Amino acid sequence: CPCPLPRGDCSLSRLLRLLLSARRSLEICLFAFSSPQLGRAVQLLHRRGVRVRVVTDARYMGLHGSQIGLLRRAGIPVRHEQETGYMHHKFAIVDGRVLITGSLNWTTQAIQSNRENVLVVEDAEYVKPFLDEFERIWEEYNPRQLQIF
Amino acid sequence: CPCPLPRGDCSLSRLLRLLLSARRSLEICLFAFSSPQLGRAVQLLHRRGVRVRVVTDARYMGLHGSQIGLLRRAGIPVRHEQETGYMHHKFAIVDGRVLITGSLNWTTQAIQSNRENVLVVEDAEYVKPFLDEFERIWEEYNPRQLQIF
């Protein structure tokens, strides 16, 4: 990265720029989402009229610092799993066209301190299976499908 | 996946097949590695003369069920971080040519129960940065570079 920022800030700024390029839709499928900067960017897109949908893991979303409650209160639809396994994906899709995926959860710890990778891919061959997986999960985690224990 | 196995077993068998296709080298860069089947496959490749190198996270590798100790005892070189952040990658590179990356740690829980993604990529454009990152980490975690506290 040729920019003069420290590595974590540089990665964050690239990710923010990419997200803020969304004009129509943003699918977010994240095990953990606690970065305030990324949370604000997602809320901004929502206010701009971009269709934002979020899928996340039930165990992490209740933790201190999670952005999920704020996104929900802002009116963004969020669905979460209720299974025994983790919803462990870490990807987002901008305008149905650009896939952002890798090891990175959207947390300040991960952005600033971890060794992580983020792939940005526009080939439909790679994007399509992730879009399909998002729609599958979105339906599977539909609250109408949730069982009451 | 058209195979008749349950999803987790099918994913595992595809991953095993891909790994066992290695003829020359296998770089493994994993936050968590506890799957006994994948551990046995990696040991088999090592015995066949494939050059195996492993990078992992120090906190996870001591946990019960981790394969890292077994790999080390089999003579496979393993390096780990000693930083404050996590070594959170989840990728492997077969013969310097095929990149396997995604959200999946090589654990039975993840393979059997989680929602995960694994990308298999052969385009050099994507493989090269991961190879470079592996070599960077490999040098950075060289025991000769470790500080004694």
Helical fraction of chain A: 25-40%
Number of DSSP strand runs of chain A: 6
Spatial sequence of strands, sheet with the most strands of chain A: 3-2-1-4-5-6
Largest sheet data of chain A:
6 strands, mixed
Rounded mean pLDDT score of chain A: 90
Strand content of chain A is 15-25%
Low-confidence stretches of chain A at least 5 residues in length (pLDDT < 50)? none
- With helices defined by DSSP (H or I, 4 residues minimum), what is the helix count of chain A? 6
Helix/strand layout:
The structure is a homodimer of 149-residue chains.
Chain A: H1 7-20, E1 25-30, H2 36-47, E2 51-56, H3 58-61, H4 68-73, E3 78-80, E4 90-94, E5 98-102, H5 108-113, E6 118-121, H6 124-140
Parallel strand pairs in A: 1-2, 2-3
Antiparallel strand pairs in A: 1-4, 4-5, 5-6
Please give a structural write-up.
- Two copies of one chain form a homodimer.
- The first copy, chain A, is an alpha/beta fold and 149 residues long.
- Chain A has a single domain, classed as Endonuclease Chain A (Endonuclease, Chain A, 2-Layer Sandwich).
- Helix content of chain A is 40%, strand content 19%.
- Chain A contains six helices and six strands.
- The first copy, chain A, has helices at residues 7-20, 36-47, 58-61, 68-73, 108-113, 124-140; strands at residues 25-30, 51-56, 78-80, 90-94, 98-102, 118-121.
- The first copy, chain A, has a six-stranded mixed beta sheet with strand order 3-2-1-4-5-6, sandwiched between helices.
- In chain A, a hairpin with a 3-residue loop joins strand 4 (90-94) and strand 5.
- The longest helix of chain A has 17 residues, at 124-140.
- Chain A is globular, with a radius of gyration of 15 Å.
- Chain A binds chain B through residues 31, 81, 83-91, 101-104, 109-110, 112-117, 119, 121, 126, 130, 133, 137, and chain B through 31, 81, 83-91, 101-104, 109-110, 112-117, 119, 121, 126, 130, 133, 137.
